[in-house]
Amino acid sequence: MPTPCFVANWKMNKTIAEAIAWLREMEKHQPLLPERGWEVILAAPFTLLCSISEFLKTSSLKIGLAAQNVHFEEKGAYTGEISPLMLRDVGCRYVIIGHSERRLQFWETDLLIRQKIKGAQKAGLIPILCVGETRRERKEGKTIRVINHQLKKALRSDDPQSGATAGSRKMILDRFIIAYEPVWAIGTGETPTPPEVESVHRQIRSFFKPAMGEAASDIPILYGGSVTEKNIEGFMKEPDVDGALVGGASLSAESFYKMIDRGVKAKIK
Ligand code: PEP
Fold first, then answer.
1. Is the whole-model pTM more than 0.90?
2. Taking a C-beta distance cutoff of 8 angstroms, is the pair 70, 83 a contact?
3. Which amino acids bring their CB within 6 angstroms of ligand 1?
4. What residues are annotated to the active site?
5. 189-224 tens-digit pLDDT
6. How far is the CA of 213 from the centre of ligand 1 (A)?
7. Among 252, 242, 231, 126, CA closest to 185
8. How far, in Å, from the CA of 250 to the mean position of ligand 1?
9. Which residues share a beta bridge with 244?
């Protein structure tokens, strides 16, 4: 069974004071958060990571810290970039890689995404790899083809020593989280139906079976795209939906903890 999780992706939002206010509100509603067996992750802008990390050191809040992007090298002449080691140093355990906003607005290629996955894993970070089709690809019936391509490109290892057993596809098999995020559903208020999401998640899981066998059942596969406290239950009731990556609705602590509460209850019913 995968460890289910909820990821708040703040994108380019919040000052330090706003971030601390959000954390204090989450702290007050701690009883609504799962005690164990669940992960709650906060993906904050780089400028907030240090303050959040300090806050969490003295708080009872069980929130894992994530960055929203990373460079693939450990250090060097890369003006404006942040390395995996720097993220570890500031207390991050996770990093979002391949978000469609970065693929589409910052021209991130499959090769770059693979390099970032490798760099992050080498430093001990757990990548949250985002995959998903555009509206056009969906209309043309290419959803699964596109996702399989993104998975293959991002996770295929070019190191013959690593990866799966002989004969199967070589894959980077360290720990990772997959977020299925249809591009057309991000920030639009539109979503696929829960059975449609389940079908894609099941196919994502089968993608990993040849290389990972039964261990494929342990990969957390999250859904992302206009998730709110109103629609979370429908998604979480599906067996292969292990949590959610939440953008807009995570900016309010109240809607985020309500969503976690409803999501957890829907899952354990
Ligand atoms: C996201 O940031 O990945 C996302 C899913 O955003 P939203 O929840 O706002 O659609």
1. yes
2. yes
3. 9, 11, 99, 181, 186-187, 224-227, 245-249
4. 99, 181
5. 999 999 999 999 999 999 999 888 888 999 999 999
6. 31
7. 231
8. 9
9. 6, 223
